[in-house]
Amino acid sequence: MRLRSALLALALVGTASAQTLTPLADVDVNAQPFFAPYVDVGGAVVFAGLAPGESDFRLWRTDGTPGGTVSLDVLGIAPSARGLVPFGGRGYFVATVDAGSGPVTNGLFRTTADGLGVERFSGVTAIDNGGLGQLTPTSVGLYFTACTTAEGCEVWRTEGEAVNLVQDLCPGSCDASPSGFTDLGGTVLFAATDGSTGVELYRALGPGLARVRDIVEGAGSSAPGSLLAWNGQVVFAATGPDAAGVEAGRELWTSAGGDASLAVDAAPGALGSAPQPLGLAGGRVIVLAQPDPAVGPEPYVFDGATLTLLGDIRPGSTGSRVQCTTGSAEARWNPSCAQTDDAFYLLAQPATLDTRLFATDGASLVEIPASTGGRLAGPLLADGTAVIVQTCAASYTDCALERVAAFGAAAAPLVALPANSQAASLGWLGETLLLEVGTRDPVTLAVTTQLMRLDMGDTSAEADRSASVRLSAPAPNPTAGAARVTVALDRAQRVRMTLVDALGRTVATITDAALAAGTHRLDVATDGLPSGVYAVVLEAWGVRAQTRMTVVR
Fold first, then answer.
1. CATH topology classification for 468-553
2. DSSP line for 211-239
3. 312: exposed, middle or buried (Cβ count in 10 Å: 0-12, 13-18, 19+)
4. pLDDT, tens digit, for every residue of 343-364?
């Protein structure tokens, strides 16, 4: 504990002190995986929050100031966990309306045009008493599901004026059960059933709906899921036969909207590889899959023809417990994964209760150690080419936010959180980072929550500098002798690299010289050093990066 705390303090010196957390309001942000925590609406953000002493979530708005952080609606209108999405400059959401003595119903609401209030969407009268969900903004309208007595659960759509049933796909009161709305250049693809077949892939183009392909003919279902738009097509998981009609199990399929085809039979036979497309990196699709039963579910990369293992993070059949949720628009906000402009980041477990941050550019998978030497935890938040992650000491009493400026860069401290506190959700308001901070009383164990802000300023120049200086993790690590680190420079510059112990003392200078552009492999001697955790600290062109190295004797 003392060692981890010392490393935390060491990492935060001179970096986190420049950042200040400002409390905005005592409110519990509704940051469920099915509910985007913050939605940008007209220069402010709206979110679902729970005020102290209240039992129902309501809609809030903040402009980043304490006085401008206010509740928008009245009690009795509680945003549910089925949507808060931006569309047409407003925030749309489903709310539960309690009329007191009357029935509890669901309704579709939105923020007013000025962003300062809430209104019931006037076009929704036909579906007030039906189930609402899966609100998905697309380039051709806001798609969602709604259930009525006459039509069952079907596809509905609005452009911000009237609300229309697109088509009674499963005629009468039966349910089409649409899910996974995905925009493909104006064609919206999704999974549904028309009652005569099982759940298959459909498209919405123009005024109606059409089945893309009956992958499993008859009453059987291919159950398309985890739809992801990529390279002019949708990549998805489905169960069905190969081109010869032989059962292929659950594998990756693709569709450009006109037809669908099996993309790769990664695990020949009826079992399948159980793929889940997660995101994109380097023009390729990052997929969680298990083609080999001896290798647990791990991250793979799909290039359109083959599925290639990026890294066996946790050897054996258990898998590394990557927990990205995909398959519906409402679940695409997930604190365990983040997609930046140049990479895909995910939290995974090489061992039980050992969560670490990994990143891929679509060609390789690298681990990014916490600069503090602590445990990594969600949430993750993308920021252009950067990602923000939380790290905590072993006891989770000392936590901080760190920032990885670009793929290949080391994690750098951003700000320390108050004692006994953790961040539960992150979001952006311009260049201001919004975060919900929960603080646990060490005596009563009661948790109080606050919405806070952190002014980030212009980090684009920092990202450019950090991207030009990349520091790899030492190898081997742990080490009983010498180790080697790799530094990649986009331009010639003076580099100073030191080895720092847990007390913040510089115990060795690895290099202090001008280096040419390119890749440099530097040896780190550990002769005479006792066992322990050390920080390899690099300083170049205004960038300070570091990585962790463990010496064992």
1. Immunoglobulin-like (2.60.40)
2. EEE-SS-TT-----EEEEEETTEEEEEEE
3. middle
4. 999 999 998 878 889 999 999 9
